[in-house]
Amino acid sequence: MKKFSVNSTCPCGSGKKYKKCCQIYHKGAYPKDVLTLMKSRYSAFAIGDIKYIIKTSTFQKDYEELKVFSDSCEFKKLEILEVGEDFVTFRATIFCKGVDNSFTEKSKFIKIDGKWKYDSGEII
Known about the structure:
The protein is an alpha+beta fold. The protein has helices spanning 23-26, 34-47, 50-55, 63-72; strands at 73-83, 87-96, 99-100, 103-112, 115-123. β2 (87-96) and β3 form a beta hairpin. The chain is globular and about 35 Å long.
């Protein structure tokens, strides 16, 4: 994982310290809704917690590929545009190796064994 202070502001945009926000999910608590899951996944990418990304997905993605993406990008801002029962539309401001790779996505989630998981995303 990237070096990240638990006393830093959480990357999800809540304004809270990381240790009082997304860290609790990264350490094992499971988000109760799709918005919390989406924000905690963004934070996981920002700090390099690839195991959390994999754990909260319905499909297996290559660990090294995700790690390279996370390590080479700076996650600057998350904006929530719309939230539904099983989806979140967001805008992620991300710079990878100095290049603006920001995007807007509608992420879809499904509940498996009582836990929400990321299922797919559509770039808008």
